[in-house]
Design goal:
Elements: H1 2-25, H2 31-52, H3 69-87, H4 95-105, H5 110-130, H6 135-138, H7 143-163
Helix pairs in contact: 1-2, 1-7, 2-5, 2-7, 3-4, 3-5, 3-7
Length: about 180
Amino acid sequence: MRTWMVRTVCGGVMIAGLVVLAQQKGGPPTPAQSMIGNVTGVNNRLLEMARDFPEDKYDFKPTPEVRSFGEVLLHVMAGNQYGAKAARGVADANWGKEEQAVDAMKMHGKTQIVAAFEKAANDAAEALKALPPEAFTKTLAPWPAVLEHNGEHYGQLVVYYRLNGLVPPASRPKK
């Protein structure tokens, strides 16, 4: 069941990305361009939220059992770190290992979390861009999983905004 959901979500996101890129570039994007655009796009939206959310609310949790706003960003950061390592062929790349490494850093506060998230998002984008285009004809892994994961947590953070009476940056009127 989970595999079906991952494929469906990733397929929909990829199609949306293809449509947008095709309109911008005058033709259909390559699989590499599509994946780079989608992963970078969701990370940019998350980074915008990280910079925008009030510092005094970084410890906000809707319930005691879930991660705080800041902890969600660090969790997403671990997924980006895993994707970058896997793309570079690091033999021991492991999502759980990255999560443990982030937890061990004990980052606190908006400034530290934003800087760390930005670094991990940039690293993931660089690793994606460094892959030769033909690599995407063999496999898209691990990027659909990273994309789905980041998109799920983007939605979670939208709810954190709304629960605090705030409007997420992407939902604000454009000037």
